[in-house]
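CO-FOLDING WORKSHEET

Operator: S.A.
Ligand of interest: adenosine-5'-triphosphate
Run index: 273
Mode: holo prediction, single chain
Checklist:
[x] sequence pasted
[x] SMILES validated
[ ] output reviewed
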Amino acid sequence: MPAIEFEHVSYQYKSGVKALDDVSFTIERGELVVLMGENGSGKTTILKHLNGLLKPTEGRVIIDGTDTRTATVAQLAAKVGLVFQNAEEMFFESTVRDEVAFALKNFGYSEDVVKRRVEWALRFMELDAYAENSPFILSGGEKKRLALAIVLAWGPEIIALDEPTIGQDSLQKEKMAEMVRLLNTQGKTVIMASHDVEFVADLSPRIILLSRGKVMGDGTAEEVLTDVEKLAKCSILPPQVVATLTRLQDLSITRRTLSVEAAAREVVEKIWR
Ligand SMILES: Nc1ncnc2c1ncn2[C@@H]1O[C@H](COP(=O)(O)OP(=O)(O)OP(=O)(O)O)[C@@H](O)[C@H]1O
Ligand SMILES: [Mg+2]
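OUTPUT RECEIVED:
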């Protein structure tokens, strides 16, 4: 059974904006998928359908075999952990520790388990030093990590991340990539929205490309991120290595790659031949 199925999903906000227009895709368990597309293309709207925050105007969203229309919020929350684009929207407790503990208590875990999981999640996201602080005074990057710690603590099978690298410095971005890989190798299904092409190229996930609420492409990172024309239509700049190879057309380099090493080898070969 797939982890996530979108069947001809359209979604219209009350304002009249049609944010999703006949979106269909299937994500198997254990896949790593990134949604890419210009501002307003519908990435956040898709993620909010995963845990039932939004229900499709037309079509069906099926999570782990359950139609989100028939599932309760609690049922979906146990399966899907969504980290918001604006992490602050998730906070309401007075300390970082309580914030992570809140959902766990709600899920009915014993005090002992809650304590252990909270400490683990805070350490994992390098937030233990801030445990007694108010979540609202954390830096932007720390808030993002707290939002992730909250979700990791309750251990859902599907993890949805909305723009996880915004506000993160390069070291934290690398750690974020490492963590995503780790979760993925543990068998979690990870779906995220990101504008950060270099971060995405590095992760090498399956990419679903969106523009104006429609799916424009769906394939491997190498397929999608080397299709310069299609990326341009979706207002996405290609990764540096792809842009460089594209500009070296005079050397008649046809191979498309996301690997800097492979690109360098190719160029050297062409020059010395
Ligand atoms: N609560 C809302 N009410 C009305 N329209 C909305 C609402 N939220 C989003 N929209 C509109 O729906 C469309 C899709 O928005 P969405 O937030 O899903 O895009 P996005 O791809 O996540 O963009 P970004 O890259 O800026 O995060 C946009 O046109 C947006 O203005
Ligand atoms: Mg968004």
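REVIEW:
Residues 170-185 form the longest helix (16 residues).
Residues 104 and 154 are 6 Å apart (CA to CA).
[x] output reviewed
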